[in-house]
Write a structure and sequence with these properties.
Layout (H helix, E strand, L loop, with lengths): L2 E6 L3 H10 L21 E5 L11 E7 L8 E5 L1 E5 L5 E4 L4 E7 H14 L3 E5 L1 E7 L4 E6 L5 E11 L12 E13 L14 E6 L9 E10 L2 E10 L5 H15 L5 E14 L11 E3 L15 H17 L11 H16 L4 H11 L2 H8 L5 H9 L3 H10 L11
Parallel strand pairs: 1-2, 1-11, 2-8, 5-13, 11-17
Antiparallel strand pairs: 3-7, 4-7, 5-6, 9-10, 10-11, 12-15, 12-16, 13-14, 14-15
Helix pairs in contact: 1-2, 1-4, 5-9
InterPro entries: FAD/NAD-bd_sf
Protein name: Lycopene cyclase
C-alpha cells in the first residue's frame, strides 16, 4: 500500500480527519473494548489545484464549552448571543458554559498543514482525482497531478469529502445562501455609527425584508469595536445574483444597523443545502463519504463544523481500535426527523420563518436552543421545544410527511 488512508478534498471535513488521524498523542492507544490496535496510519491528503474545484475562503462557526482543540486558530468567540425579531424585539443571553466561536478556513488549513508537515507518516498532494476503484485489498486512487502527470495511489481506506454532483432525492430541499461583508467603520466621519460590542454576536436579525417564500435575516459577528462580519442570509429554493445580495447588505447596514461610513475589507459568499435527503456514507467496501456529502450538515440550520469534528474523531478512534473505520451518523434520527418537519412547514408556507424562529427563542432558554441545535437535548426537552412552535401547522406537517415521495432536487 502507498497509504493506509487517503483523504480526498481539503475542506473542513478532509482537514479535520487528517488532523485526528495524525494526532501523535493518540497513536497506538488501545481502548478497553478493542480486540486489536493499529499502528499510526500513513495518511495522504489530496487537495484540489487552484481553480473551481478548490473551495474559496470560508468562515466556520460553532459553539463549544470551554477551550477546544482549535483554540489557537479561533479568530473570535462570544459569550453573549442575541436574536432580533421583525419588530426589533431582542432576546439576549449568556448561554454559559457555551461560547460561539469563529474560525477562518485559511487559518485552519495552515494549522492542520503544520501538523501534517511535522508527521513522518503524512503527506499532502495537489491533484484532481478522477476515479476511485475498489481492489481486493483496498482502493486505487487515480487522478492528474499539476503539469499533466498521472496520479496512482493504492490505499487501504478512502474518505471522499468532495461535493456531490447532485443532491440525493428528498421530500424537501431548500438552500441557505448568503453573502457577507467584513466591514471596518470609519470612526472619524460625522455619520459614524457607535462601535460594535465585541462580546456580543447577533445570530439572527429578522428586521430584513422577508421574501414571499422562505425567510431572510442578518447576521453580525463583531471582531472588534470597529470591525465585524455582517451577512445577509436567505432560506429559499434558489440563490440570488451577487448584485442582489449586495443591495440587501447595503440596505441592512445603512437602514437597519445604521453603520454610517465604512470600508468593505473582504467578502464571503456561499450556498448550503438544507434537505431531508438520506446521504450515503459508505459507497464501497473501503470508500466512505464525509462532511456535507456524508450528511454532516444539520438540515435545520446549515451548521456543519461541530458534526464534522464528531465524525472525524469517531473515524480516528475506530481506526486505532482495529474496527472498520466507518463514519457514524453525524446526527441523531430524532434530530433529523424534527428538522424534516421544520423544513417542510417552511417550504409549504404553513409557518412563517421569521415568526417561527423568534417564537422559539422567545419561549426557550438560549442554552437549551444551542444544545438542541447540537443534538444534545433530551426527549422531554425536544417535546417542550415542539410545543413552543405553531402546534397545529406542525402536526399537519407531521401527518403528511410520511406520504410524500422523495424526489430529485428541482435545481
Amino acid at each position: 500500500m502507498d497509504a493506509d488512508v487517503v483523504i480526498v478534498g481539503a475542506g473542513a471535513a478532509g482537514l479535520s480527519l487528517a488532523y485526528r488521524l495524525t494526532d501523535p498523542c493518540a497513536a497506538g492507544v488501545r481502548t478497553r473494548t478493542a480486540r486489536s490496535v493499529r499502528s499510526a496510519p500513513r495518511v495522504v491528503l489530496i487537495d484540489a489545484p487552484a481553480g473551481p474545484l478548490r473551495p474559496p475562503e470560508r468562515t466556520w462557526c460553532f459553539w463549544e464549552q470551554g477551550d477546544g482543540d482549535f483554540e489557537e486558530v479561533v479568530a473570535k468567540s462570544w459569550e453573549r448571543l442575541c436574536v432580533r425579531g421583525p419588530g426589533g424585539q431582542v432576546w439576549e443571553s449568556r448561554p454559559h458554559p457555551w461560547r460561539y466561536k469563529m474560525i477562518r478556513s485559511s487559518a485552519f488549513d495552515a494549522f492542520v498543514d503544520a501538523r501534517l508537515t511535522r508527521s513522518p507518516l503524512a503527506e499532502r498532494v495537489t491533484a484532481t482525482v478522477h476515479r476511485l476503484t475498489e481492489t481486493a485489498d483496498g482502493v486505487l486512487v487515480s487522478g492528474t497531478l499539476p503539469g499533466g502527470r498521472q496520479l496512482s495511489l493504492r490505499a487501504g481506506w478512502v474518505y471522499d469529502s468532495r461535493p456531490l454532483p447532485r443532491l440525493p432525492p428528498a421530500r424537501t430541499t431548500l438552500l441557505q445562501h448568503f453573502r457577507g461583508w467584513f466591514v471596518q467603520l470609519d470612526t472619524g466621519k460625522a455619520d459614524a455609527a457607535s462601535s460594535f460590542d465585541p462580546d456580543s454576536a447577533c445570530l439572527m436579525d429578522f428586521r430584513t425584508p422577508q421574501p414571499e417564500h422562505g425567510l431572510s435575516f442578518g447576521y453580525v459577528l463583531p471582531l472588534g469595536p470597529d470591525r465585524a462580519l455582517v451577512e445577509y442570509t436567505e432560506f429559499s429554493e434558489t440563490p440570488l445574483p451577487t448584485e442582489a445580495y449586495d443591495a440587501a447588505l447595503r440596505h441592512y447596514t445603512s437602514e437597519i444597523l445604521k453603520l454610517g461610513t465604512f470600508d468593505v475589507l473582504d467578502t464571503e459568499q456561499g450556498i448550503i443545502p438544507m434537505t431531508d435527503a438520506r446521504f450515503q456514507r459508505q459507497v464501497g467496501r473501503h470508500v466512505f463519504r464525509i462532511g456535507t456529502s456524508g450528511g454532516a450538515t444539520r438540515p435545520a440550520t446549515g451548521y456543519t463544523f461541530a458534526a464534522v469534528q464528531r465524525q472525524s474523531r469517531a473515524i480516528a478512534n475506530s481506526y486505532r481500535s482495529g474496527a472498520v473505520p466507518a463514519p457514524p451518523p453525524p446526527h441523531a434520527r430524532r434530530s433529523l426527523a424534527m428538522d424534516a418537519v421544520m423544513l417542510r412547514a417552511l417550504d409549504t408556507g404553513r409557518v412563517r420563518g421569521a415568526d417561527f424562529f423568534t417564537g422559539l427563542f422567545e419561549r426557550m432558554p438560549m442554552e437549551r436552543m444551542l444544545r438542541f441545535l447540537d443534538g444534545r437535548t433530551s426527549i422531554r426537552e425536544d417535546l417542550l421545544l415542539g410545543f413552543a412552535t405553531p402546534v397545529l401547522p406542525m402536526l399537519r406537517t407531521v401527518a403528511g410527511l410520511p406520504l410524500l415521495p422523495r424526489r430529485d432536487a428541482r435545481r
